[in-house]
């Protein structure tokens, strides 16, 4: 139980953001304690014991103040805006129309917001959950309780998936008791768990003895409506089902009905701002854009565009592209192409559990922004596969809190500590002739 004691040590400090090194240290000790405990984890077989430990760890984190991320305040604000009848997809928090909402509950929520000029990026299912909780007194507490319940459902589903495939329940402990999961969901209150649980449910209904195609498709839609990314898994899950066309039709219909009011006026500006401007700890993105910049690739592209202008004579048309010729945007374009390859390759895998893990892991490698809680998307599948690379990253990614709250640069040393050992572990598996995503 050392891992749990290290987590309890977080309660000794009133504001974790002022003590990032201590916070990272305690989370790291908890992670190491979990790793040692799992060495004897074969003794833990009972659903009741596993889920009891899961509940205990999550209850320990619920009272923790969300000091290391401001996302939870944005969830509650967007919920308040939606509950008041405004459109959070078009109206940013600093809009004068919302001035009357700022003073509710003493104005504390408004004061905690970051990026007040950017409208929400959260899909309708997430926004619905936020608006329901925002109506309750003590909304932060209720929000954490809601997420804890969803997370426990995810734990139960992971255990059921392990049983369905004849895998040791000990593997699930890498998710169920992982300090990153407990800290980011029940502690910091991140909504990603809603989409993660829906993904687990979608796959679970595909692997049960009597698959439920329509139910899985609805769960796949729910995952997309919690966060948009799982839409890329639809082709994989549809191919695995007995009726691919029906699967895609149901998922698309449910999602389309929910997203139509959001996208009818155009792409929400919050999504555009996130895609273009946000970047932090991207596994391939960080070295790629720096490499492009050092090699003067943007200048070469601009020179090629100059030549096209001279040949075509259509200066006004090609001038539109110049604002986008910079290293970061070019890197994002290249990684978008790589993400497409990742999706295509996932369709070639026969096992849906392995393929889902490889898909989400590959996509995370292609993102420009990877905060610690983004690891929730890959960790359940990495736990089942005992993927050493991603299990390392799920623990080491907590180091990225250090640069965010202290005068420490992410690049290159913190970045290297997170990603280079993971690459080494994957390389070691390959040399042994074993696929990192093999469940055997």
Q: In total, how many beta strands?
A: 0
Structural class based on helices, strands and sheet pairing: mainly alpha
| Portion in beta strands | under 5%
Radius of gyration over all CA atoms, rounded: 22 Å
Q: Quaternary status of these chains? A: single chain
Describe this structure in words.
This protein is mostly helical. It has a domain at 289-332. The chain is built from 24 helices and no strands. It has helices at 2-8, 20-38, 47-61, 71-83, 99-102, 108-112, 124-134, 139-164, 173-176, 179-187, 192-207, 213-226, 234-240, 244-263, 269-277, 285-294, 297-312, 315-319, 327-346, 352-366, 379-385, 388-396, 401-405, 410-431. Helix 3 crosses helix 10. The longest helix is centred in the middle third of the chain and has 26 residues, at 139-164. It is globular. The mean pLDDT is 93.
Characteristic terms for this protein:
globular, mainly alpha, 24 helices, single chain
Helix and strand topology:
Blueprint: H1 2-8, H2 20-38, H3 47-61, H4 71-83, H5 99-102, H6 108-112, H7 124-134, H8 139-164, H9 173-176, H10 179-187, H11 192-207, H12 213-226, H13 234-240, H14 244-263, H15 269-277, H16 285-294, H17 297-312, H18 315-319, H19 327-346, H20 352-366, H21 379-385, H22 388-396, H23 401-405, H24 410-431
Helix pairs in contact: 1-2, 3-8, 3-10, 4-7, 8-11, 11-12, 12-14, 13-14, 16-19, 19-20, 20-21, 22-24
Task: Summarize this entry quickly.
The protein has 440 residues and is mainly alpha-helical.
């Amino acid at each position: 139980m050392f891992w749990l004691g290290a987590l309890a040590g977080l309660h000794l400090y009133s504001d974790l953001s002022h003590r990032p090194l201590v916070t990272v240290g305690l989370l790291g000790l908890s992670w190491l304690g979990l790793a040692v405990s799992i060495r004897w984890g074969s003794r833990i077989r009972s659903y009741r014991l596993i889920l009891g430990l899961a509940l205990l760890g999550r209850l320990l984190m619920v009272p923790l103040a969300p000091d290391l991320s401001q996302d939870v305040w944005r969830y509650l604000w967007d919920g308040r805006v939606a509950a008041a009848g405004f459109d959070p997809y078009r109206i940013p928090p600093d809009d004068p129309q919302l001035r009357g909402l700022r003073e509710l509950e003493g104005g504390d929520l408004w004061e905690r917001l970051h990026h007040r000029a950017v409208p929400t990026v959260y899909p309708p299912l997430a926004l619905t959950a936020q608006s329901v909780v925002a109506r309750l007194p003590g909304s932060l507490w209720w929000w954490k309780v809601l997420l804890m319940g969803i997370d426990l459902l995810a734990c139960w589903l992971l255990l059921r998936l392990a049983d369905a495939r004849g895998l040791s329940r000990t593997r699930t402990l890498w998710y169920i008791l992982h300090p990153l999961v407990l800290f980011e969901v029940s502690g910091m209150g991140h909504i990603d768990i809603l989409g993660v649980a829906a993904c687990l449910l979608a796959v679970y209904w595909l692997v049960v003895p009597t698959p439920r195609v329509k139910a899985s498709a609805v769960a796949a839609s729910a995952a997309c409506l919690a966060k948009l990314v799982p839409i890329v898994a639809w082709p994989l899950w549809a191919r695995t089902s007995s009726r691919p066309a029906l699967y895609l039709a149901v998922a698309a219909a449910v999602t389309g009905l929910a997203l139509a009011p959001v996208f009818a006026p155009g792409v929400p500006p919050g999504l555009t701002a996130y895609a273009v401007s946000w970047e932090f700890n991207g596994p391939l993105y960080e070295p790629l854009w720096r490499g492009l910049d050092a090699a003067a690739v943007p200048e070469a592209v601009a020179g090629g565009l100059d030549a096209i202008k001279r040949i075509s004579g259509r200066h006004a048309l090609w001038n539109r592209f110049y604002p986008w010729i910079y290293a970061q945007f070019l890197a994002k374009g290249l990684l978008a192409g790589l993400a497409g390859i990742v999706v295509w390759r996932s369709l070639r895998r026969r096992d849906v559990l392995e393929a889902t893990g490889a898909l989400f892991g590959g996509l995370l490698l292609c993102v420009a922004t990877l905060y610690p809680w983004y690891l929730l998307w890959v960790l359940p599948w990495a736990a089942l596969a005992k993927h050493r690379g991603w299990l390392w990253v799920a623990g080491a990614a907590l180091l990225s809190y250090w640069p965010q709250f202290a005068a420490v640069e992410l690049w290159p040393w913190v970045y290297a500590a997170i990603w280079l050992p993971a690459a080494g572990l994957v390389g070691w598996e390959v040399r042994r002739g074993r696929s990192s995503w093999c469940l055997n």
